[in-house]
Amino acid sequence: MSLTDASRPERRLPWRVAAWAWLAFCLVVAVHQFSFWRTTHFDTDVLALLPQDEQSPEVGIAARQLAGQVTRQVVVMVGAPDWASAQKAADAWEQGALAAHAPLQRSALAGADSLRDTLAFYAPYRDRLLTPAQRAQLEHAAPASLVQGALAALAQPGGGFRLADWNADPLALWPQWWLARASDTRARPRDGRLALADGGLEWVVLLQETTGAAFSMSGDAPVSTALDKGRAAALAAVPGARVLAGGVPLFAEHAAARAKLEVSTIGWGSVAGVLVLVFLAFRSLWPRLLMAVSLLVGVAMALSVTAWVFGHVHLLTTVFGASLVGCAEDYGLYYFASRQGAPGVPPLKLMGALLPGLALALLTSVLGYVALGLPPFPGLRQMALFSVVGIVGAFVTTVVWFPWIDRGAVRATRFSAWIVQGYERWPRFRATRGAWLVHAAVLGACAIGIAHLKVDDDLRQLQGSPKALLETQREIGRLLGLAAPSQFFVVRGASADEVLQREEALKARLDWRIANGELAGYRALSDWVPSRARQAADAALTRRVEDGVIAGVDQVLGEAQQRAPFDAAPLTLQAWLASPASTAGRALWLGAVPRRDDGSAFASVVMLRGVRDLAALPGIATSADGLPGVRWVDQVQSVSALLGRYRQTMGLLLVAGHVAVLLALAWRYGRRAWRAWLPTAVATVATLALLALAGQPLQLFNVLALALLLGIGIDYGIFLLEREDGGAGAAWLSVVLGAASTWLSFGLLALSSTPALHSFGLTLLFGLFIVGISAPLYRQPAGRTPVPTPITDPRK
Amino acid sequence: MTRLTRAIALAALSVVAMASRAATLASASASAPAVDAVKVVRERLKLSPVLKGEFEQAKTIKGFKNALVSRGEFLVARGQGVWWHTRDPFESTLVVTRTRVFARNPDGSTSNLADAQAEPGVRQVNELIFSLLAADLDALSYKFTVAAQPVGSAGWSLVLTPRDPAIGKFLVRATLAGERDVQSVRIEEARGDTTQIRFTRQQPAAALAADEAARFQ
Question: Is there a contact between A73 and A93 (Cβ–Cβ < 8 Å)?
Fold first, then answer.
């Protein structure tokens, strides 16, 4: 295994072919990169990172449909103690925001014409549209009292401005039905604006939508800038006014700006770190240049392949990917350190000798990253693919190009000589009583630490949105009384009508919960289009009651009114969907979904409004129990549960991975294998203890980071063991440089404001440090290794 | 946002229905103004914190051969509410306060017709009533174009036309006439229905009596 023994022939031709082939491939990637940066926009949607429920695709459809409605919507609320100031502040806001020339426009409010059209659409079916309270009232009220009520209404001033002729709605049931439909939001039209009053403030609701394409990584935030200008203008016009702004575009813009900053910090920080290390360790120009080339190829290839496979690149992938720089450079460092340690060996021959060790190191790292992609989280899979392609790209560049391009001597520097000498002075583990005691003490401390480790699988780890933005969003949701986006029921059925019938069964149970104060209301398709059975029953009920009322009124007033005729055919979902009347509720209909064994092939969503508190959710969830085709979906809870499940699974896999790695090492290194493995094992245990001490809860992301630690940390053990009988100093140099740059990258990742990435980076920060200091500790006892190949410093 | 917008817009229907109704109620018992003529009307009209009196109302409704005539008494307390008690042809009472609209049943119990908690539009509508009661020209001219006309030496008339076309779909115009007090109100609806109210025996007062205040509870 010693380099000087490397007697395998230099297979120059295949190597040359490989080098050219790789160049051709890199050119293809370069072309793709050119178009990628010109056209691609990054994905900022946190939902894209979440797993799909494979058992129930309709849940994913529902989540996407509900989210899709609001991707462009920005809600601005301007509040002041009185309506006149609120309007003044709102006018100022609009002027101010307009002046910013942001890709933002005012959403059109439904005009009087569309209201008339909607009324006209529903008018033939008025007789079968009842609220639950109306149904109960009509079923139980005495006919005489209904007649009295109708007469009283006729006598009242104005008499109620009806939506239909008196003989088409003698009990004025229809306005109330519309009022119930309007409860989707608390905002009401007022003086040509939307308004609401709450907590002593009058609010103007300004609905805006973003125009133009999704967010790029340009780093500027035009929408937020415009909103800030609007706010400043509103406050200037009405001091003390309150301005709230929320909506997906704000979150997306913030995420994009932050990701840009983090990618720059992590990416350029790592690149700078690597180049400084290379500059310090290798005197010549080629190492610096080639290292930069291998990193560039790795990252470009990672971006291209990810975009090609997934169709888009998520922002968090780029943030995570920026830390790749710290891993991808290991192979080049190892090569140049070895060149420096063996100046007489031709580059190709050297590479031939290094290849087995390099390949094994690559394999373990790849396996570490593949472990990252095992949980069914598309986001993690994207990060895993990105990283695997990145390190493979850097590896292949190192292997097939470096020996060709790299010419001349890689001269040592004072810095590299100092590191190599440091290796010799580093303490070694010897089986003395003192050493065992130290180990026992460390192990004991770790055990105590790990015993204090807490577990937290909350989904909110994925979300790094600033608190202020989240709170504003919550306040807007509360003020407007909007339905919750992440908890809902999905209702399935064999036909559209069965879906509606099943919804009605569910609603009957929810009505009870509403009466109980557990929630304020719900949004359901069957409120807009009742099932055929319900329509028939309600039409019969209103016919019976209203005929009686009209007859009674006729008798008292001496009139001869006849009840207006209604459509004989029921209102169908199809007709409703095709009409503009469905705008308000269309998103609740999921349409055809993959057919199930129970024959269900259509689905809808029933959303909840004003859930009292989180404690009420489990009770509300039980409303689905025993109802065929009805399913409760709590995305926060189910994703958190999934995170927990995978934390456990990946924990077991991590243990299995350690065993597998140890076996693979044993296969190549025999009884010495433990020396390569133990540093990483110690680091894993000690990192868990350190996380506990730092008060960090254990999450899936820590476990995934530990899996990656196994992949990377083992490399250092391999490099050291591989060169044990010659050139260990050079191997140590590459380990020190590699570990330092990897450490820097993940250290920078720990600065990320996304909690998941932060804990990932922090875990590797701890782990790599411990691997770095303990790897030389377990090297062969000095007496049993040959004298390392001396590093020749030309200055000496 | 279009769905939300639409939902909100649909809500407008009911609100408009109520607003016009409330406007009727309010204008029935209060007063209102316009530019130079408005000034004159303001001088002639004497507002008092509390006003009570009797009314006679005649409604013509599409489909009914005869006008519906009712009589009764009313009480208006500025900033507090309107109490509308029909005695003839049968007993019924309607009360509008800042936050709700309710009917008082013959047995003394109340049944809510609308309240601001459940329907945010109620607060808005009731505010309109109160701005009418206060003869708040600024607030009124937001919602209506106001045409004022002095009549004779002591009389006046006001024609209120809705500015918002959505309201215009329901309410064509409201015409008020009177001297010291409002004496008549005429409401014309787009549907063709009309309401004509005459007020008599008006008595201004500085404050509500205890039993009168209880009517708004």
Answer: no
Weakest-pLDDT range from A3-7, A76-80, A671-675, A773-777: A3-7
pLDDT, chain A, mean: 83
Most B CBs within 10 A among A77, A156, A528, hence the mutation to make, goes to A156
- Are B11 and A179 an interchain contact pair (Cβ–Cβ within 8 Å)? yes
**CB within 8 Å of A615: residues ≥ 6 apart:** none
pLDDT tens readout for residues A201-233: 889 998 888 876 555 555 567 888 888 899 999
Residue of A72, A190, A557, A562 to mutate when probing chain B, most B C-beta within 10 A: A190
Task: Check CB contact of B144 with chain A, cutoff 8 Å.
Answer: no
The Cα A252–Cα A43 span in angstroms is 9
Nearest residue, CB atoms, A584 vs list B10, B90, B195 = B10
Q: Is B204 on the interface with A (CB under 8 A)?
A: no
Give the domain A3-39+252-459+638-784 fold.
Multidrug efflux transporter AcrB transmembrane fold (1.20.1640)
Phi, then psi, of A355 in degrees rounded to 5: -55, -45
Q: Which residues pair with B148 in a beta bridge?
A: B158
- Which tokens sit at A94? 């609009």
Domain ranges of chain A: 3-39+252-459+638-784
* Position with higher pLDDT, B34 vs A584: A584
pLDDT over 90 percentage in chain A: 19
The residue among B14, B23, B8 whose CA lies nearest residue B187 is B23
Q: Candidates 3.40.50.11540, 2.50.20.10, 3.40.50.80, 3.40.50.20; correct CATH number of B2-216?
A: 2.50.20.10
Give residues with Cβ within 8 angstroms of A476, minimum separation 6. Answer: A75, A77, A244, A246, A482
CA distance B138 to chain A (A): 10
Q: How many residues does chain A have?
A: 796
Instruction: Tell me whether residues A107 and B191 touch, CB distance under 8 A.
Output: no
- How far, in Å, are A249, A430, A664, A782, B48 from residue A427 at the CA level? 56, 9, 27, 10, 99
pLDDT in tens, A659-715: 988 888 888 888 888 888 888 999 999 999 999 988 888 888 888 889 888 888 888
Which residues, in sequence order, are CB contacts of A424 under 8 Å at separation 6+? Answer: A729, A788
Amino acid occupying residue B190: A
Q: How far is A38 from chain B (nearest CA, A)?
A: 30
First to last CA, chain B: 40
| Interface contact flag, A182 B189, Cβ < 8 Å | no
How deeply is A140 buried, as exposed, middle or buried, from its count of CB atoms within 10 A (0-12, 13-18, 19+)?
Answer: exposed
A523: which residues sit within 8 A by CB, 6+ positions away? A184, A483, A585, A588, A606, A607, A608, A609
pTM (2 decimals)? Answer: 0.72
pLDDT band at B26, cuts 50/70/90? very low
The two three-digit tokens of residue A505, written as one number: 């069964």
Give the closest-approach CA distance of B7 to chain A in angstroms.
5
CA distance A733 to A410: 13
Option in B17, B120, B164 nearest A192 (CB): B164
Contact A584 B6 (CB under 8 A): yes
Inspect the interface and report whether the beta carbons of B90 and A176 lie closer than 8 Å: no
Say if residues A204 and B24 touch (Cβ distance below 8 Å): no
Residue B168's closest chain A neighbor by CA? A112
Cα of B2 to nearest chain A Cα, Å? 7
Task: Name beta bridge partners: B101.
Answer: B96, B114
Please answer whether residues A634 and A621 qualify as being in contact, where contact means their C-beta atoms are separated by less than 8 angstroms.
yes
CA separation, residue A471 to residues A465, A466, A474, B194 (Å)? 10, 9, 5, 50
Interface residue B52 vs chain A (CB under 8 A): no
